């Protein structure tokens, strides 16, 4: 492993751990300051802080599975996904900054939600974005990091990779 590779891994670890810490801190703050199912209006007509428990996955997936089986299944899926992310990250070149940053964000977010699911059987969601009567699904810092990380990977695949192909032709 080159010096650049070691430095890049340290940066990735720092990003992932920072996301994990921010996620856990914000969820704890919500648990302590907002009653379950209550809302605090932050930006009228657009943003509330809420306190909800998500026992399923994104968009209500697996909501009909019994709690015990769901917790085990969701934990197993998260562990397999995190193992795959780490394995893939080892294959990514140190100079592929966008891909490595995306993987670090996804891993940090996955760890944050995994801790909640494994310890409590649910994830605390608290960001409620809405327009008029339409409310998007509530989410948290971990979900945001996973989404941004996935966006970085998509950008890396389509924008950076196509640039590499066109410059090598």
TrEMBL record:
Ranges in a coiled coil: none
Molecular function GO labels: aspartic-type endopeptidase activity
InterPro entries tied to this protein: Peptidase_A8 (IPR001872)
Organism field: marine metagenome
UniProt record, GO biological process: proteolysis
Any one of the GO CC terms: membrane
Keyword Chaperone assigned: no
Pfam family, one: Peptidase_A8
KW Cell membrane (keyword) present: yes
Chain ranges passing through the membrane: 72-90, 97-115, 135-155
Keyword entries, A-Z: Cell membrane, Hydrolase, Membrane, Protease, Transmembrane, Transmembrane helix
This protein's name: Lipoprotein signal peptidase
